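Notes to self after the Tuesday call (sharing in case useful).
The group wants a holo model before anyone commits to mutagenesis around the pocket. I volunteered. Ligand is magnesium ion. Logging inputs and output together so the record is complete.
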Amino acid sequence: MNQHQPPIRFDNSYAALPERFYERRDPLPVARPSLIRLNRELAEDLGIDAGWLASPEGLDMLAGNRLPDNADPIAQAYAGHQFGNFVPQLGDGRALLIGEVVDGSGRRRDIQLKGSGRTAFSRGGDGRSALGPVLREYVVSEAMARMGVATTRALAAVTSGEQVLRETVLPGGVLTRVASSHVRVGTFQYFAVRGDTEALRLLADHVIARHYPQLQGVESPYVALLAAVVEAQARLVASWMHLGFIHGVMNTDNFSIAGETIDYGPCAFMDEFHPSTVFSSIDHAGRYAYGNQPHIAHWNLTRFAETLLPLFGADEDAAVARAQERLEAFPELFNQALQAGLRRKLGFTDAREEDAELFRDLFQLMADAKADFTLTFRGLAEDAAAEDMGTARALFADAAGFDGWVGRWRERLRHEHAEPEARRASMLSANPKYIPRNHLVEATIQAAVERDDFGPFHELCEITSRPYDEQPGREIYALPPQPEERVLQTFCGT
Ligand code: AMP
Ligand code: MG
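Result:
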């Protein structure tokens, strides 16, 4: 590496905002960092030399032991509603934004270390991350990206060579997370609760320039910003629903303004379908259950709208009316996105009146049969060009009910023009076979934490990086858990 050329061309726009937006803080070095996995493809996308990242100097950065001179590490301030309760100050308690990079196509992204030590926002926490959550976020967020879901990414995972104290003593790790930005609804709430309208305006201008540049110069850019975030989140949550994904902790501090999935704490993919499914150990009331996610998204967006009201003009009633109008669009936008994805999953290229009922009845049959979410859709795709629906049918004890539904589906397909083989191919590319199922994720974490064996983690990363491909010999990874493998609860692990 040329001595005068910095290894990463950081370009830090958030750190140029006023100091009350963050705390400047260096990461706290770890004892014996060691690289677990590096996302070379993502590094390349970002215009970062993967060879350098894998070098001792690169590892020093990924572990937070020594940052390049042009990094400008900050802990971002934010607030948030946690399970409905407002906390006026949360902030990066165990993460640091070390800088932003602009990739070859002009896209700006945050590079953040998670597990990098205490900050002004740590409260009682140690600022560290256990290895398990680092591995979970790496494998699940990368799988989500491969399945076309808007998400933060994982650039690298390292072990710290230190232990962290949770319920037990666990090995520690640091994740390098990449995001379009880490601005959340909670970031707006942080300034709104302080009555800091100037900061709200600066923040809104920052996110418009960064995520919604097409809104610069429109007549009411802040109202348009609300509408854009409503739309982005409607699309995002619909894409979770298409995969049986349960985020698990949809607090407003985990709700991204860029519309990306963020915070892979207690998340999980459902095996057996039921809309009330919850995994998170702390979600006692089922607030963040699978079927509740669209309602919560709408609720979170309402909290976002409230923070923007001071920017909507001096007339308060008029401001509220404008906010309400944008918020009221959510259910329809969500529904459209949901249905569009379900049509792709079931092989429909155009929309028809009867589709909504077909979707609803399939989900009802799945719930009654406790059918595996992923296998049901994959099975329908696999057999889409065949006479016999044996693969999916095997999941339904009520074969007559399932056959009745298949009859209606086939009838509906008669209005489609695609050849059966082409339809099958397009359905196979809309219905993944290999996802990071909960029991697989748990098993890879166990192997790493208890036996220092990262083989299963690497293997799961490889398998789920090709979610739609047949992978001969790996079929066992497509299966739901055996009774003794079932994971009933997930933990934030913080
Ligand atoms: P999360 O539930 O992961 O979204 O975190 C909620 C809040 O708790 C954020 O402000 C985090 O920074 C903070 N937090 C979580 N874990 C830790 C930790 N180990 N040390 C310090 N702060 C933490
Ligand atoms: Mg969070």
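Two things stood out.
Residues 323 and 380 are 42 Å apart (CA to CA).
The two ends are 37 Å apart (CA to CA).
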